[in-house]
Amino acid sequence: MRNRLTEKEADFISVARVGRLATVGPAGMPHVVPICHILDEGLIVFATPVTSVKARNMAAEPQVSLVFDDYTEFWEDLAQVVVQGRAGMITAGPEFRRYRDLIYAKFPQYPTAADGISEKEDAMVMVSVERVASDGL
Description:
Layout: H1 7-15, E1 19-24, E2 30-35, E3 37-40, E4 43-49, H2 53-60, E5 63-70, E6 79-90, H3 94-106, H4 110-113, E7 122-135
């Protein structure tokens, strides 16, 4: 595994509409959920309510895994990027608002269909890439 995204991996993650995030709960139980994300300056960024299971898990254990994949019945065309990294969270401020604007630009339905992203009620999660592997790109 490498510790930096290639240009192809970054492009693949940037255009992906959904990724899957794995966190670990206090009893060691994995928790996997879909996320709508952006890639900004090497960070994978997404929003979550501060009271969510994933937010609580990341506050206790910031090491996470993410997968971005493109599935097709023609298995020779399968593609995936797997990232392991460390999550940090912010709940307000200019950086929070900048990330929110970037997420809204990629997902224009977010403000209405998902009740939007609010300072203090939601957290912006920034995952720094520590390990990455890919296949099919």
